[in-house]
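Exam review. A common question shows you a sequence with its structure tokens and asks you to describe the fold in words. Practice with the pair below. Do the first one on your own.
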Amino acid sequence: MTEMTSIDAVQKMLDAQGYVCGRALATVVFLSLRLGRPLFLEGEAGVGKTEIAKAMAAGLNRRLIRLQCYEGLDAASAVYEWNFPAQMVAIRSAEATGGTDSAALTRSLFSDEFLIERPLLQALRPDENGAPILLIDELDRTDAPFEAFLLEALSDFQVTIPEMGTITAPEPPIVILTSNRTREVHDALKRRCLYHWVDYPDFGREMEILAARAPEAAEALSREVVAFVQQLRTEDLFKKPGVAETIDWAKCLLALDVMTLSPEVIADTLGAVLKYQDDIAKLQGSEAKRILDQARASLEPA
């Protein structure tokens, strides 16, 4: 059990780290901490799933351990491996000095001295500040065998190293899993977790986020930026911009001393908002002006 005693306390803690979230997300975070259950966050890329783990680690003063998932990730890469080059040096040294106790050498070779700990094993180790936060990021990039392994690891919070035995966490880590939903994660793993879909924020929430992450931006520019991005998300794009792109774009505009949006400024800085050439090509010519006009119209009082 961690220090958070209420949903309001969770919201205040996240706000203090510059992470603006709604009551529903704060509630599921609180329940995850209170019940010791992994938290599974799904949503489009750039909506703040990874950032919440960073904010929680900072707010709770816990170590953040990140396992970045990728295609082909296996248990060995996620848990541990042996430092083979160092082991070979130790063997050569033992041979050169005439060491003949093979049992002692074997025990030495397969000890903590030569063990390279990967994120899952690191998360099981005790920490003076309390259980760390284990972020398993973009789980949907892995395959079914790794999911099956992870299901077992998260059930018992222990791993077995054949040469050393079973290592169990003295205090289970705070686990956050994220997925961009490029594929469905197996139901068995989801059932172990508390689930929350992290959606694009509405205009008011995105303004709060931008104010927290880019406070130097003038309100008038921030309103135009958020309105334009919100309008952009209604277009038929290959990849809609996330909140991360909104923040990046606002910072780019500030670096260019831009005070207000124009079709020319938008054309020059689209690479901060859209990451695919086909999407950028759709906003050439009059399209950027059309979307900007619609965004400004949405800002006018009814």
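Now try the second one, then compare your answer with the model answer below.
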Amino acid sequence: MPTKPSAQKPLKALKRPDLVAQEIKRLITEKNLSPGDRLPRESELQAQFEVSKGTIREALKSLEVQGLVTISTGPSGGGTIAEVPLDRTLQFMQNYLFFQEVTIDNIYAVRQFLEPELAAGAVPHLTEADFEALEHSIACCDPASSSEDMLSQRREDVNFHDILAAANPNPFLRFNCELINEMLRQLIVYGNRTPKAEHRRFGEVNANFHREIVQAARARDVEAVRTLMARHMQDAASSVKRMKGRIQGRLILDADTLRSPRSAHVRPKAAAKTTKPKAGE
């Protein structure tokens, strides 16, 4: 007797605008379009996919919400390819993680794996401008020499890592580390009773590690940078736990939180970001 096939849930049929949005993504890939390139005009897309103007506009709006295109109106309007910004990606990640119990330990467990490889991979690609930016970051975050307030110093702790991320040519590794940095900047808070002396010690240790990492990177010593960053991440994880660092509520940010200005040191397609005063190393 033949066995009955196991019951499967029917696949949810995509709406026509969603199907057209997928085809436009395929078109972008086939034509090798890049950020800044224009999509064909609405009338051309309408004729190519044999759908109504309303369907094309709804498909383009869907891609705009995803951050893949920007839409302008008027006689010369239409869709322009855009590079999805990190803050938009973080919002999507938060939707997935909203009901997950993500802890500081979870974040640092991943960070301790990724940051040493990120820093090591950046070493051959660091320019003199990068080194100047790294040294400026150290000067701003070191309590022993900085005139900045304590919270501004902690912001610079994370900016240091973004500068290294921008120099690493591996886009997937860079993305994951920048995403973690953004979470650290925006979502971690510390216990109100943490003594100022503890924050100062944290900042001094961070600055010393950063200084040693820059020195090794200038010498193009990849293995030394990897080892120093691994030690740095282990110390940072211990310090954050000792200072009672925690995730602030659920993983959710509002639009104003995500609209933080970028720092002056900008590499192509990446930047070291400034942050709101709640981040930890």
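Model answer, second protein: The radius of gyration is 23 Å. The beta strands are 69-72, 78-81, 188-189, 246-247, 262-267, 270-273. Full marks require stating both points clearly.
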